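A note from the maintainers: we've had questions about how concatenated examples are separated. There is no special marker in the raw files; a new sequence line simply starts the next protein. For clarity in this README we add a label.
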Amino acid sequence: MAALDSVLREGLLVDRTWLGKHGIGATAVDYYLRSGKMETLVHGLYRKPGPPLKWQNAVYSLMLLGYN
């Protein structure tokens, strides 16, 4: 299992599929959500807690997820 800090950068938005491809399984996602190390932005979209989301991060994340 990959460590969240080594996979998910601050400001990046990801879904469960992306997390799974990077070694973070469903059980780990649930743990990170319950522990507050990751938060749900909208249903199925996650990020690390931190500063307010910038539109540039959202656009970059969409491109990273393949929506370009």
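[label: protein 2]
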Amino acid sequence: MLSYCVPGEETRTQCVSQVLDGRIYVFSGGDAVALLIFNALENAWSAVGEVPFEAPCGEGLVLNGDYIYSINGEIKPGTRTCRMYGGLLVR
């Protein structure tokens, strides 16, 4: 089994991900706000922006076509949210 670490990134806990067109979209996790994509075909990571709201950890991440939704999660220890955010993935 191979493991690919994100260059310059700290370990993320409770992050969520989805796969689309051979790319793994990694969202939130801990205090991280960078939106990351791992391109399996190129074996490369890229940061494509930042989460535009408080990035919860442990949330659900749902992919529906070109739309991605972040549902619930923990903003900080003991503080949970029932919010849902969504956005269009730009490829």
